[in-house]
Task: inverse folding
């Protein structure tokens, strides 16, 4: 027998032992689609809620360059508010989303007066700074402070802000990196901090640090990928523009030397004109395909659009010695999309088919109703096919195997299909040919089944 079990307890108020409940809440933070700040606040909630460790208040300091800066301070402002918050947090069935909402509410009341108090606090992270609370991260130790006002190492401004004699400093460390610090106290219950609470809080600190580190690494990676993509695009465009420019420059110089006869002058001018067209085309494709702004999909007559594209392609097919054969179901229902963009999608697929297949070969275009909700259009060629290693890259910008390709056509097609809730599939075998299949959502309401 196989039984699927949920990964994480969906319920914040678990009946499990509190260590397990706490572990469950903290680890859930790593999987939640909320902001890093929201998820960190949930970790603070776990440290302050009855089912978690049960501290009264938690403050979070984050590393910012070589400083430790005050961030959020979560907890009640008075014993009455403490009672109210604990009541909310012990509601059975409380889930992650409710906790996030609760935290946002806590932080919004009185424009977050508590966090406002710690926001101006900052401590230098230099090794010789031995003041509390920063020593905890410098020494990589959990520090439990008692009788704080008698302890000269406690920073005076910090002590005035926190206003309690007993608190726990939990450094947030990932290997040798300092991610921040959490400071916990029992300002309202006045309960002394127990060794077990210290251990649990330490464990939470390790997990929170790991989470902050991973989140910042992910952020860096996304930025690096974006920069790399931008660099690739710039290199590709430079490469595409360089050749025509060099040709134009060379042939213009020849003309300026004035030694060529009339026939050669004419040939040079024709080449120059051809290269200028090429440049115009690059600029057009970049602007047109990259700036695609999808229109709201509306029902349109796909059959008519297909026929008009096929008719317009006929002269080119004849000039390039290709045959286009079409098989279009006469009873196609209207489909959803932007007809102009869909026309261009079909034109692009047919041109790709031309470019992949040898002279004299046939391209087959078919359109049929698949079921009550889908219409499928296929463009099939008998060309060189797509090797497996190219498959994954087909829809990425600037992927092309053609000397003068831009690699934007399939990306455009994918965007148009995504915008109308359609699909695109490709089937290809090296040396045998390729079939692109587009799935359009159809609108058959009120029509008799065919
Ligand atoms: P481009 O046509 O400018 O190269 P596309 O985005 O239209 O850009 O196509 C990207 C690449 O996908 C082509 O360079 C080619 O390698 C491959 N490809 C597209 N359609 C076909 C096809 N019908 N047969 C074989 N390869 C194709
Ligand atoms: Mg193309």
Result:
């Amino acid at each position: 027998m196989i039984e699927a079990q949920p990964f994480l307890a969906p319920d914040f108020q678990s009946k499990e032992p509190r260590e397990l409940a706490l572990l469950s809440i903290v680890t859930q933070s790593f999987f939640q689609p909320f902001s890093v700040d929201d998820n960190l606040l949930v970790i603070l909630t776990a440290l302050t809620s009855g089912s978690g460790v049960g501290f009264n208040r938690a403050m979070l300091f984050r590393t910012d360059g070589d400083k430790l800066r005050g961030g959020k301070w979560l907890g009640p402002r008075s014993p009455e508010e403490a009672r109210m918050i604990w009541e909310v947090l012990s509601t059975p069935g409380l889930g992650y989303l409710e906790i996030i909402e609760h935290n946002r509410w806590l932080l919004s009341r009185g424009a977050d007066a508590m966090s406002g108090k710690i926001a101006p606090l900052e401590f230098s992270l230099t090794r010789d700074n031995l003041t509390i609370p920063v020593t905890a991260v410098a020494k990589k130790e959990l520090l439990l402070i008692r009788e704080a006002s008698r302890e000269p190492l406690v920073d005076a401004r910090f002590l005035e802000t926190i206003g309690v004699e007993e608190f726990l400093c939990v450094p947030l460390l990932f290997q040798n990196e300092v991610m921040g610090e959490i400071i916990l106290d029992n300002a309202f219950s006045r309960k002394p901090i127990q060794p077990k609470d210290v251990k649990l809080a330490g464990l939470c600190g390790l997990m929170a640090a790991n989470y902050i580190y991973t989140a910042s690494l992910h952020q860096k990676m996304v930025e690096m990928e974006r920069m790399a993509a931008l660099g690739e695009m710039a290199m590709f465009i430079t490469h595409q523009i360089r050749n025509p420019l060099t040709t134009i420059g060379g042939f213009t110089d020849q003309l300026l030397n004035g030694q060529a006869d009339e026939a050669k002058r004419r040939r040079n001018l024709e080449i120059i004109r051809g290269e200028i067209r090429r440049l115009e085309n690059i600029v057009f494709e970049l602007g047109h395909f990259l700036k695609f702004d999808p229109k709201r999909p509306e029902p349109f007559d796909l059959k008519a659009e297909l026929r008009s594209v096929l008719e317009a392609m006929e002269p080119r097919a004849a000039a390039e010695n290709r045959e286009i054969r079409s098989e279009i179901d006469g009873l196609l229902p209207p489909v959803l999309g932007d007809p102009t963009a869909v026309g261009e999608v079909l034109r692009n697929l047919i041109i790709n088919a031309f470019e992949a297949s040898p002279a004299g070969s046939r391209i087959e275009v078919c359109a049929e109703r698949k079921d009550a909700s889908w219409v499928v259009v296929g463009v099939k060629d008998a060309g060189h096919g797509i090797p497996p290693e190219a498959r994954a890259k087909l829809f990425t910008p600037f992927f092309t195997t053609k000397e003068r390709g831009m690699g934007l056509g399939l990306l455009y097609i994918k965007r148009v299909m995504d915008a109308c809730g359609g699909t695109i599939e490709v089937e290809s075998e090296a040396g045998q040919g390729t079939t692109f299949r587009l799935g359009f959502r159809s609108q058959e309401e009120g029509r008799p089944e065919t």
